[in-house]
Amino acid sequence: MALVSVNGIEVYYEVHGPDAGDAQWLLNIGGSGGDLRHTLPARSPLNKHFRVLHYDQRGLGQTSQPDTEYTIEQYADDAAALIDTIIGGPCHVLGTSFGGMVALNLALKRPELIERLALLVTSPGGEHASYRLTDLAAMDADEAFETRMRLFDTRWDPDADEPIPGLGAVYDFIVAQHRTAQPPDVAVGLARQVAARNGHDVVADLGAIDHPTLVGCGRYDGLAPVANSEIMVDRMPNATLEIFDGGHLVGFQDERVWPTIIDFLSA
Questions:
Q1: Domain limits at 89?
Q2: Cβ(224)–Cβ(121) under 8 Å?
Q3: N-terminal to C-terminal alpha carbon distance within the chain
Q4: What crossing angle do the helices spanning 98-109 and 184-197 adopt, rounded to 10°?
Q5: pLDDT at residue number 151
Q6: CATH code at 194?
Q7: CA within 13 Å, CB half, 229
Q8: Residues of the chain whose pLDDT is less than 70?
Q9: Can you tell me whether residue 183 is helix, strand or coil?
Q10: Are 231 and 124 in contact (CB under 8 A)?
Q11: Burial (CB count <10 Å: 0-12, 13-18, 19+), residue 183
């Protein structure tokens, strides 16, 4: 657990996994609003197989929150700086949701830093973008909550015994999180990150990303639909597609997710 100075900010990070010199490095780039104090990086199944660098992105968690607007390019530059500074050479990269957008931009800007690439529940942007979360700001609280739940999983049924199949107790945590107002500093950082999503568009450049890539998606994801993953696999020369049984939170819903990602990155 430490801070490192990169690109004019202090980035909070944690490294978990084997200390052996031959352990493969993995940069894990989280999704919107990610905060290592809540995402429990020490419990990640990835840690058993890789030396994993987890971190809070700019404006979030225990990382600096510059008082300015952020861009998707800055997030990619931060990821590159962490690889250069802490890992010191090429590594595997996993990007989930917003983290996948960062990873795609990183792959284009600094391709030499990536060995194998895994993208989970994400989109290439442009005409194939994930749902614009900025649109939620125009809704009242109830409409925004209902919209968000259906984005997480198109099967959402608040009257069912299991409103989102496969989530179990995680569902109650998600509901509490999205029913509770965020502290002002957290809300500001998240809003800036969400706004940066709107500038993400690598569709025209997908063919230039030739790393061995696994693209994983949830069959019932309303935020990053399956069609967005299919576009990436169709245009990226070395990408394969895996459709899992779940929505945007498929990592909790389908037990195949983590073994599939681990096997791919270990190949």
A1: 2-266
A2: yes
A3: 29
A4: 50
A5: 97
A6: 3.40.50.1820
A7: 28
A8: 1, 20
A9: coil
A10: yes
A11: exposed
